[in-house]
Amino acid sequence: MVTQPDMRVDLGKLVLKNPVLAASGTFGYGQEMADFCDPALLGGVVVKGLTLEPWPGNPPPRIVETSAGMLNSIGLENVGLDVFLKEKLPWLVERNVTVVANILGKTVDEYAALAQGLGKADGVAMIEINVSCPNVAAGGLAFGTSPEFTAQVVRVVVQAAEQPVMVKLTPMVSDITAVAEAAVQAGADIISLINTIPAMAVDLENRRPALKNVVGGLSGPAIKPVALRLVWEVTRAVDAPVIGGGGIMTAEDALEFLMVGARAVQVGTANFVDPRAALKILEGIEAYCKEKSIQDLSTWVGSLKID
Amino acid sequence: MGDVFIKNCQVLENRQLMEGTYLMRLRAPEIAAAAKPGQFVMVRTGSEPLEGGPLLRRPFSLHRLNSSGEISLLYRVIGVGTRIMGGVEPGRELEIMGPLGRGFDFSEAKEQSYLVAGGIGLAPMIALAEAMGDRKSKFFYGARTSKEVDVFLALIRQTPYEGELVLTSEDGLKAAKGMVTGPLAVALEEEPAQLFACGPRLMLARVAVLAREAGVRAQVSLEANMACGLGACLSCAVERASGEESGPVYSRVCFEGPVFFAEEVRW
Ligand SMILES: Cc1cc2nc3c(=O)[nH]c(=O)nc-3n(C[C@H](O)[C@H](O)[C@H](O)COP(=O)(O)OP(=O)(O)OC[C@H]3O[C@@H](n4cnc5c(N)ncnc54)[C@H](O)[C@@H]3O)c2cc1C
Ligand SMILES: Cc1cc2nc3c(=O)[nH]c(=O)nc-3n(C[C@H](O)[C@H](O)[C@H](O)COP(=O)(O)O)c2cc1C
Ligand code: FES
Fold it and tell me: What is the block-wise mean pLDDT of chain B (267 residues), using blocks of 10 residues?
């Protein structure tokens, strides 16, 4: 007899109903995708990166498709903390969505202020610190490439926040375990990775960069092998739970990340290819568990065999 | 948003009208019933149901909508996605998402309207012409070649459109030589009328100026690189003519557009 597999994810201070989250910036504020993907069915929705004040974002063109992936230089266009709390969050809370707020500050103080503002809000399950956005001049990557700066940001956010704190790492470092360890020592509850990889494309005909911002972040299937390796390294280096992502398009991709050691996954670019992708991945994982008689998905986590 | 669908739609016809320009007819009852002129669909050209191909869906205006559950796309082959589309045999299915975005608002179009199209920007303007019914209008079409003029005439004659046709072509064969905005400017001087337009960005920018000078409103259909088509990713930004000191403000072509009032856009 096939029983319903236990898909819950224990993240320490928080238990997710299942291991599939929508990645920040690829799912709007949840509502945009709701015609095709009920956000309440997902393990969580990481909303578009938030800043204290609204940000306009970068001039277009902001995206371009590349081999097995895409570049984006959205530039963190977002409504800002206040509008998020007043106009976007209630819709998510009403529907019982597990909301993860992705935050980005230009300074350490701004990160703290964001965490404080979100701490008071009912319905934000977790905070994801974005120290890895390649598309902003200040903050983001500038913090994430240094273990010390990362730790500084984590410390103030952990202090100000009421919720569990997750840190999203950039792949743009020579030793990711150093950044991960610094983040955990500074109090981070969870590590997520990877953010996009800074990259470039040119328009030969026009002799122009394909993006107005010249460079952008690479995402999609092209980055999956890079992400898998980094997730593997981080899960071996820290005890804190890890949420992995980068190029996940199918349930098989997600199962690979889990096998390598991630407890949950973030699905990003796949949502553009098909707004039902995150749900399909979730269903696929469940079907796989049934087929392989995996009763508790957590036993699959980190089950990679290395001879 | 309302009714948006993702459907596997059977290709009924996929015909080359001239070098690099195709007309695709698809069976898409739900989309056809929900769509308005100026709205668009996103076509999946990669992975299942077709093998290989690119990642992101490609946006196309609805070129014809009819009550018998069909839609048509009029498209030009540009790169990998449209090349794949050009090779799709009738009988196969394509996964289509739509209808998307905000279309033309022609509820106020009573006295006289000018429909303006340049090049492949013709696609949504035929749907609009068809929907105008017996409202008074003129159709201005700017072609590059005389072949394009022939294609236009064949397409418009399939519709019950009865308005006057004003044609230009860059080669000056079978139509007045020059840009379509030339005769449009003359017409606006003689009889100001509201404008509906789709075409190259430069043409639309000129239309915006002409509309302002004539004191009429213009609705223009814009293009932008898109990822989600649903308003989630903020890829498809167009700068608004906000007139504020506080810096640029962007709208989403896929959501607030693709049809904008010309005065809303920073050209
Ligand atoms: C709302 C809207 C309606 C459109 N309607 C039509 C139509 O009715 N007929 C038609 O022929 N074309 C139309 N286009 C343009 C059409 O989407 C592009 O020609 C097509 O995406 C090119 O894809 P490709 O893979 O062949 O080209 P590639 O150059 O290989 O595409 C690379 C990437 O750039 C994007 N891209 C390239 N050109 C454009 C463009 N002009 N606009 C937006 N994205 C682009 C592609 O979608 C893809 O993501 C429309 C675009 C928009 C935004
Ligand atoms: C259009 C776009 C916007 C993004 N915006 C954000 C963002 O605001 N904050 C953030 O932390 N990551 C952002 N990301 C990164 C994704 O959340 C994800 O980490 C990355 O795309 C890798 O996963 P994927 O290959 O599945 O897309 C964005 C990615 C894309 C493609
Ligand atoms: S294409 Fe994603 S917001 Fe317009």
Answer: 88 96 97 96 78 87 91 97 95 96 90 94 96 90 94 94 93 87 96 97 97 97 98 97 81 98 95
Distance CA B213, CA A15 (A): 62
Q: b vs e for B32-68, b when ≥16 Cβ sit within 10 Å of the residue's Cβ?
A: bebbbbbbbbbbbbbbeebeeebbbbbbbbbbbbeee
Question: What per-residue string of b and e applies to B116-147 under the rule 16 or more CB within 10 Å gives b?
Answer: bbbbbbbbbbbbbbbbbeeeebbbbbbbebbb
The CATH classification number of B113-221 equals 3.40.50.80
The interaxial angle of helices A224-237 and A251-260, nearest 10 deg, is 30
- pLDDT tens, residue by residue, B207-229: 999 999 999 999 999 999 999 99
Domain range B5-100, CATH architecture: Beta Barrel (2.40)
Q: Is ipTM beyond 0.90? A: yes
Cα(A221)–Cα(A268) distance, rounded to whole angstroms?
10
**Is A37 in the active site?**
no
Tell me the mean pLDDT in the region A262-288: 97
Walk me through the domains of chain A, giving residue ranges and CATH numbers: 9-57+76-200+218-299 (3.20.20.70)
Mean pLDDT over each residue of chain A, to the nearest integer? 95
Domain boundaries, chain B: 5-100, 113-221
- In the block, which residue shows the tokens 């990775």? A193
Could you give the CA distance from residue A77 to residue A28 in angstroms, rounded to a whole number?
11
Residues with C-beta less than 6 Å from any ligand 2 atom: A 23-26, 48-49, 72, 74, 76, 102, 130, 133, 168, 195-196, 219-220, 223, 245-248, 267-270; B 233
Strand partners, A71: A64, A218
Which residues, in sequence order, are bridge partners of residue B41? B60
Strand runs labelled E in B134-231: 137-143, 164-169, 176-177, 194-198, 218-221
Q: If you count them, how many residues does chain A have?
A: 307
Contact at 8 Å (CB) between B99 and B62?
yes
Identify residues of A whose CB sits under 8 angstroms from chain B CBs.
Answer: 25-28, 32-33, 35-36, 48, 56-65, 68-70, 72, 74, 77, 220-221, 269, 271-276
